Amino acid sequence: MADDLPIGEVIEPLSLALATHHNAVLVAPPGAGKTTSVPLRLLDEPWLEGRRIIMLEPRRLAARAAARRMAHVLGEDVGETVGFVTRDERKVGPHTRIEVVTEGVLTRRLQNDQSLDGIGLVIFDEIHERNVPTDLGLAFLLDARAQLSLDVRILAMSATPEADVFARVLTSPDDPAPIITSQGRMFDVEIRYVPRQRNDRLENIVAATVMRALRDDEGDVLVFLPGIGEINRAKTALDTQISDDVVIHRLAGALPFNEQDTALAPSPPGQRRVVLSTDIAETSLTVDGIHIVIDAGLSRVPRVDVRTGLTELTTVTSSRASSEQRSGRAGRVREGVAYRLWGKIDDATRLAHLPAEITQTDLTGVALELCAWGTAPDRLQFLDAPPAKALVRAIDLLHTLHLVDNTSRTSDSLPSVTELGRNALTLPVHPRLAVMVLRVREHPEQAWLACVIAALLEERDILRSDKSTPIDLALRSRIVLGLDSHDSADRGGVSRVRERAKDLARRARISSDVFVNADLIDHYCGALLLRAYPDRLSMRRSTPGQFITYDGSGAWCDTKDVLAQEKFLVAADLDADRKSSRIRRGAALDADQVAATLGEDLIIERDIMWDKSRNDLVQREVRRVGSLRLGEYISEPLPCDDTVDALVDRIRVTQLDILNWSDDAESLRQRMLFLRQHLGDEWPDVSRKTLLASTETWLRPFLAGATSRNDLERLDMTMLLRAMLTWDQSEQLDAQAPAKYQPPTGKAIDIDYTDCAAPSIDVRVQKMFGVTTHPHILNGALPLKVVLLSPADYPIQVTSNLPEFWNGSWRDVRREMAGRYPKHSWPEDPRTPSTF
């Protein structure tokens, strides 16, 4: 079965290694036959005991192709002895012994059932690619096997000679992992360097090199490009130059399966083909008929921006190992040619291998898997441990999304996964997008729209990008749902997004047979997006198109964009520029939607303050999200302790002046101070200083229910002061310190107690005619100071002994007053009634 392939020479030692050890590493170059031959040759080994083999492939296309090839070798259909499981397809049957699965499938199975019942061997194919699911699945499998003593063997297969890295993780003190190496059978490949100048457009140099290869060399051409955008541009550049006997095919994971299968099929007689491919064809896959490889020398890899926490697909220079694998595709069955679009000197500057994805990308999904698994990262055997700081940031985001809580599962110090978190793990999307979908699952229209938005963000943008491309995800949603159109929309992309959304809806048990009209899309899109990206909420600055983001950094869009004037938007897709990120995709919402969507995560700062413009107490409510101040709301404060505190503070600030100090109240306070000074400390101290210091005791009990300045002004200060007196003191007050003095004629006159040593009255002298005894207080112990006034109310004499005044200086005063006020009575003897 494998004897005619290079891998056949190592099958026997490999089988022996797995018979005597639990782990092994197989190194074999591309084309050696390891992917399709090894599982079949190991299927009947005694140590497998009839159990199944799971083989992990890094890509869906490779999984499907490998399963089909093995089924073909057995003369069976896929789903019999050999089947495959990917995110989108499942073709296995009751008698399937070999399951080819994409990497994430193993992690899901382990999370659901760590025992892996019925599995005897797990093969990690192309483990050198170091994708996150591979590293995570291997770490979980090793941990489960150690904890449960599982009899499951592990085989790591690689096309690069990094065997020691994998063997180190797979080796235990009493069970080393043997390394089996197949030299393969490679034909000579001539390397030709085509240096690319700085100003050369990639598609132009690719097209020129393809035309040169078709002219100078034999066989089909495989071109390695970093992404679908470059593939499409290169195809456009070639379409006008290619002859009729040459067919151009595209090969990328984002393309429909039928287009992928066509690209892999051999050319019909008399026809040549050019396959424009991403690195999907670098390993695992065999592209029949290829004898010419053109390598652009670029790879598109995820890289996380430390400042923003955003993961970008970044185009980087490919590694030397990648270049060797790509070139090797030309020498599978005969001598070939490999064109490298860089200079020979540049070859030495390339990295031997690119860094592992787990060290470079967003770890939110990894963190959620780890929290659900429950074993601390430092106790797991990783090929490369996830960076600690990136993991902490990821766990913080999980808290923000409510996917984990604050309780620790065990001493491992990982937070526990919430029910929402466990449900999110079942959906094949980023945890952010899973939250968006799951949060609205009970609302059919919103739920289906959420699936569409998630698919739009998971897939390549359906609008061809340029400076004028609208950023609005609501527009894209309308296009996917057939309610709108746009000149730059990619029909194939729209179809892929629609199918992806339906698949996600099916997995989340959401109906896709729901009509969502354009108005609902525009209304809900931003709020839905905020559930996934609460940390990407942005608020417009004073300039249209300029926004401040949740963390205080800047973001922008074209000033002519339809969302440039919006107050709030969620920037789901940013370019992660360090100064001010360009918003590529987002949606608008209003402040009320922000408050309603974020709920408990909204920071509401309430304080009660004195509003100078209103000259009254108000309650100010400020709503914040991160660094964004959503708005300020002013209302009347409610009756509560905080309101009373604020009123008391205002009373203190105004030094009691805000209170309703009527003449009677102020007079009472002065009288009480007078009696305290003359009768002793048993009388309350009602000085301003003491009242300010003791508001809690004498004033606060009377402020219950008060909320405003009017309530303070309605306080009866006379009653409050009298409340400080005992019954006896109340009785003595009016007797010892009367508020008024009644002269022989006219109304009673207020007694002024401001000077406690000498209370006084101001009275016209005519009102005192007939008074022979000087007025006294304190039961006659203290004479009042009497200020005698002229008819014009000017003081003419101050006396504390009125009889003496009548006997003495009255004569001079009388003479002066009679001349000034002749119409008034000025008797010689004011004490005798008959004289006035």
3D structure, described in words:
The protein has 836 residues and is of the alpha/beta class. The protein folds into six domains: 6-181, 3-Layer(aba) Sandwich (Rossmann fold), CATH 3.40.50; 189-358, P-loop containing nucleotide triphosphate hydrolases (Rossmann fold, 3-Layer(aba) Sandwich), CATH 3.40.50.300; 363-425, no CATH class; 431-600, no CATH class; 604-718, no CATH class; 740-835, no CATH class. It is 36% helix and 20% strand. The chain contains 29 helices and 33 strands. A hairpin with a 7-residue loop joins β27 and β28 (749-750). The longest helix has 17 residues, at 132-148. The model has no long low-confidence stretch (mean pLDDT 90).
Give the key terms.
6 domains; Rossmann fold; single chain; alpha/beta; 836 residues; eight-stranded mixed sheet; 29 helices
Q: Per the principal axes of the C-alpha atoms, what is the gross shape?
A: elongated
**Termini separation (Å)?**
147 Å
Q: In what order do the strands lie side by side in the largest sheet?
A: 4-3-5-2-6-7-1-8
CATH topology group of the largest domain:
Rossmann fold
The average pLDDT is 90
What kind of sheet is the major sheet?
8 strands, mixed
Gyration radius, to the nearest Å? 45 Å
Number of strand segments: 33
Low-pLDDT residue spans: none
Number of helices: 29
| CATH architecture title of the largest domain | 3-Layer(aba) Sandwich
Give the name of the CATH superfamily of the largest domain. P-loop containing nucleotide triphosphate hydrolases
- CATH class of the largest domain reads Alpha Beta
Please give the share of residues in helix. Answer: 25-40%
What structural category do the secondary elements indicate?
alpha/beta
